[in-house]
Amino acid sequence: MTNEPLLDVRELDVFIGESHILQNVSFAVREGGITGLLGRNGVGKTTTLRGILGLVRRTGSVRLAGEELTRLPVHEVVRRGVGYVPEDRDVFAGLTVAENLRLAERGSAPPRYDLVYELFPELRERAAQKAGTLSGGQQQMVSLARALLVPDNRILLIDEPTKGLSPLYVKNVADALQRAAMVATILLVEQNFGVASRLVGDAIVLDQGRVVFRGTIATLSADPELARQHLGLATAGHA
Amino acid sequence: MSTIALLVITGLALGALYFLIASGLSLIWGLMRVLNFAHGAFFTVASYCAFIAAAALPAGGPWLHFLFAVAVGVGVGGVFAALTEVVLVRPLYERHVGQVLVTVGLALATTALVQGGFGADPRQLELPVWLTGTTTIFAAIPNSRLLTIAAAALVLVLLRFFLQRTRYGLIVRAGVENRAMVSALGIDVQRAFTLVFAIGGMAAGLAGVLAGAYYGTIDPFRGTAMLLFAFIVVVIGGLGSVTGSAVAAVIVGLLQQFLNFYAAAGTGDFAVVVLLAVVLLRRPGGLFGSAT
Amino acid sequence: MRPPIRAIAVAVVLAILVALPWAHVSLPGVFGDPLGSPGTLNLLGLCFVFGALALTYDLVFGYTGLLSFGHALYFASGVYVTAIALVRWHWDLPHAIALTVVVSLLLPIVLGSICLRVRDIPFAMVTLAFAQAASILVLQNPGGLTGGEEGLPLGAESLPAALVGVVNTRNLYWLALALLLVTYAVGWWAVNSPPGRVWQAIRENERRVEVLGLDPYRYKLGAFVLSGFLASAAGVVYLLLQGGASPTVATADFTLALLVMVVLGGVGTLWGAVLGGVVYEYLDFRLVALSGAPAIQALPGILRVPLSEPLFILGVLFIVLVLFVPGGLAGFVRLVAVRAL
């Protein structure tokens, strides 16, 4: 049980047009906690998440708790317990906050509205507001809430949730992630190394479509050469 | 005054028919990005099945026959549309041009088949007396027009109810905005596709039957002719917006009627086309659509 | 060794086509009359015209990726402008053609510059709108110019003697063949030229073309104008073959037929489009004749009715092609050729 990873990605290859975006990407995500998927801009982190879900065409193998996902259509992959929080939030602008959340409801267990409203009280206040009129930070809350709502979600794929947010919302999101990690495993794509180093336990680093590091954030932070080479950081291990 | 009243009602009734066809087209385009040329075929096949089946009823008065025709028309329209989606459109998923083309082929084949089977000439219908008569409101208004307007208004209400208050309606509204994200929430969008086609087909079938009452005849070509204007209504109203289609349908219907009457015949049709070009060039998303 | 064989084969086919009016061979079933007869020559001429027309549509739809629903408009302008000049204004043929040349350059420039401001489905809709407006205009018969529903028949006095009369059908046949060859040559030169490559790049990915510093609008307009002009030319020859103008050429159905032709033949291949046009027109003609045949008439209603309607067969054929053979006839032929060689 403890040895088998929750998410096992093997030899994932993604071509977009003629570009070989992901090359032979393999990594494993252990159950529990937050695993970071790190790297500079444009190295393929978002594509990796999309490849796991099947939103882009890919070859290779993706197993969730031992079950092969690559032959399933996107909605079936999600139904196996994969929550997705995309990079641009992708809330439905014409629907209200409440409708956005209601759409996400699924599975056998009742939706976790108490958790969601505890983490994001603003969503309860703005339930009747059209999601398109929310600020970036509020939309991010909706997007995260959608994934947290579903108790069946065993792993949450979260793509750069703090991008473009004010410091207050960044803190909100970081707190929410830590809370979420208590009920689900998280694979977090994050470009902000400061945020990542605070939240993340295991880390996988991508560079130009390839995996260049697998280990813990502690190891990564302690090695300035690694950090500089793959993350473009002048110094490492800062908060 | 009586002329104006007649023109207004006729314009609204024509707009009502356009709306019935356009609403389905709009949802199909909005959710699936498919330009469904076969929608006119749903209209035509439904109208023929409806009135032939009604005529074959052994007993019952004209009203029973007519209501039966409505039921058959709606049913046939829905089933034909759902079958089209499953058999022809679904296999071409993500091949948008191919999906358009296959509906073109179906439209051609269907019109030809109906023409071959029943002749190109309009077929006279037996209708309840009330429908062929008039009611006096400022002028002698044909009752078929009143019925058409009432039916379309009812359909508008039902569609809005469906979209705003049911789960599948929620899925459709979200899917019109962002289909991929709906899948990413674990929802099978394909089922919504078939549903939307079926709804469109039912509305088109109803339009086919009501148009039969309106004109007193059915023919193999009316579906295609109305489809063109329905497309224009959809684009002006905004792809994916049922409300937009309703508003645009009223505008188009009234414009067509008034200009065809007060200026030379055909001017109204011409003006509608010009209106389309103008709207498209100023707001490609239509009046109620998104800006892109 | 392939290219020389291809060139020889093409030359042989061309020689046969040119010599056809002198052939006294009959191909029963394929053609109702012997090959050299006026009836068959007229049909073949029409097939060539549609082949050329399909090719012009392939330039704008197959190569540049512009789904225009208004292409019939330019064909119709070729038909009607020439007809009006000949019949209503009593011009002679050279002057009528000169006028048509001017119109067929101006019209796509003006309409294209409006339509090309939008893309994809809105573009398709605007082109449809303009074509529909033209169709309505033709039927309205403003000032008695277009002849409305009845069209404009060409009288013998309107045309030079060489083009009039059943005896001279062979001249029209050769004219149509010449049209097809010239259109093909121009099309071939265009798609292989630098602008032609930009067209294909635009079809693949318009954004990337912009990024490369090129203005897609100008190239799209170029494709639009060239194809519109060539379509008008086809319209002129069509007018001569038919002996008159009729409003069916301006209808939306007609543009859809063009779409069917190009997809039938194979989108994005010149000879495929020509093949599609030729086959479509042939089927349209012959299926009507065949449906009157005793063998078909004897069939039970449920089979006879569909088979008597050429559009039904074409529609079904179209559906089958789109679903199973996206490459059209050209794709099919290539498949077979690859297997055979």
Q: Features of this protein?
A:
heterotrimer; B: 292 residues; mainly alpha; ABC transporter involved in vitamin B12 uptake, BtuC; 12 helices; 3% strand; C: 341 residues; two-stranded antiparallel ribbon; 15 helices; globular
Treating each run of at least 4 consecutive H or I residues as one helix, how many helices of chain A?
10
Contiguous low-pLDDT stretches of chain C (5 residues minimum) are none
Q: What oligomerization state is this entry in?
A: heterotrimer
**Structural class, judged by helices and strands of chain C?**
mainly alpha
Largest interface summary: B-C, 43 and 40 residues
- Please report the distance between the alpha carbons of the first and last residues of chain C: 12 Å
Structural class of chain A: alpha/beta
Q: Would you list the SSEs of chain A in sequence order as H and E?
A: EEEHEEHEHHHHEHEHEEHH
In the sheet with the most strands of chain C, the strands line up as 1-2
Largest sheet of chain C: 2 strands, antiparallel
Q: Count all strands of chain C and give the number.
A: 2
The end-to-end distance of chain A, rounded to whole angstroms, is 34 Å
Radius of gyration of chain A: 17 Å
List the helices and strands and how they pair.
The complex is a heterotrimer of chains A (239), B (292) and C (341).
Chain A: E1 7-16, E2 19-29, E3 34-38, H1 45-53, E4 58-64, E5 67-68, H2 74-79, E6 82-85, H3 97-104, H4 113-119, H5 121-125, H6 136-148, E7 155-159, H7 167-180, E8 185-189, H8 193-199, E9 202-207, E10 210-216, H9 217-222, H10 224-231
Parallel strand pairs in A: 3-8, 3-9, 6-7, 7-8
Antiparallel strand pairs in A: 1-2, 1-4, 4-5, 9-10
Helix pairs in contact in A: 3-6, 6-7
Chain B: H1 2-32, H2 39-56, H3 62-89, H4 96-118, E1 123-124, H5 129-132, E2 134-136, E3 140-142, H6 143-165, H7 167-177, H8 179-183, H9 189-215, E4 217-218, H10 222-237, H11 242-262, H12 267-282
Helix pairs in contact in B: 1-6, 1-7, 1-9, 1-10, 1-11, 2-3, 2-4, 2-9, 2-10, 3-9, 6-7, 6-9, 10-11, 10-12, 11-12
Chain C: H1 2-19, H2 38-63, H3 72-87, H4 93-115, H5 120-140, E1 152-153, H6 169-192, H7 194-204, H8 206-211, H9 216-242, E2 244-245, H10 252-265, H11 270-291, H12 294-297, H13 301-308, H14 310-324, H15 328-340
Antiparallel strand pairs in C: 1-2
Report on the structure:
The complex is a heterotrimer of chains A (239), B (292) and C (341). By secondary structure, chain A is α/β, with parallel strands linked by helices. Chain A is built from ten helices and ten strands. A six-stranded mixed β-sheet of chain A has the order 6-7-8-3-9-10, sandwiched between helices. A four-stranded antiparallel β-sheet of chain A has the order 2-1-4-5, covered by helices on one side. In chain A, a hairpin with a 2-residue loop joins strand 1 (7-16) and strand 2. In chain A, helix 3 (97-104) runs parallel beside helix 6 (136-148) and helix 6 packs parallel to helix 7 (167-180). The longest helix of chain A has 14 residues, at 167-180. Chain C has a domain at 38-250. Chain C contains 15 helices and two strands. A two-stranded antiparallel sheet of chain C has the order 1-2. The interface between B and C is large, with 43 and 40 residues.
